[in-house]
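Weekly structure sync, notes
Attendees: PL (lead), two postdocs, one rotation student
Agenda item 3: pending single-chain targets
PL asked that the sequence for the first pending target be pasted directly into the notes so everyone works from the same version. It is reproduced below exactly as submitted, 105 residues in total.
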Amino acid sequence: MNLIQKLGGWTCVDDPLRGEFCYWDSSKSIEPPPDVLRRCDADPNDEYCKKIIPYSFRNTGAGEGTENWAQALAYFVYPNYLSDTTIGLRSIRRRYVKKQIANLP
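Predicted structure, written out during the meeting:
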């Protein structure tokens, strides 16, 4: 099971122009990505937060949730990557990344 499946936030729909289109639906995710601003985690209805899309929500075309995984890995491997403005890793992501690293050949 990949990280996006574990978190339950990846949604795919049929788009008449693009075919199947997938996006991150934060309302369906079990936990927010690490680069969500603390301010937005505390109050997701803040008007500022409704306009800000965390980098990890984006799919760069390399596959479902690639940026979400990349951000989780960066926060895990580089503790200084966490600033006092972002929420950092929560338990599901932390365990998932740790397990993936432990399973490297």
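Discussion points:
- The chain has a mean pLDDT of 83.
- The two ends are 18 Å apart (CA to CA).
Action: rotation student to compare against the earlier draft before next sync.
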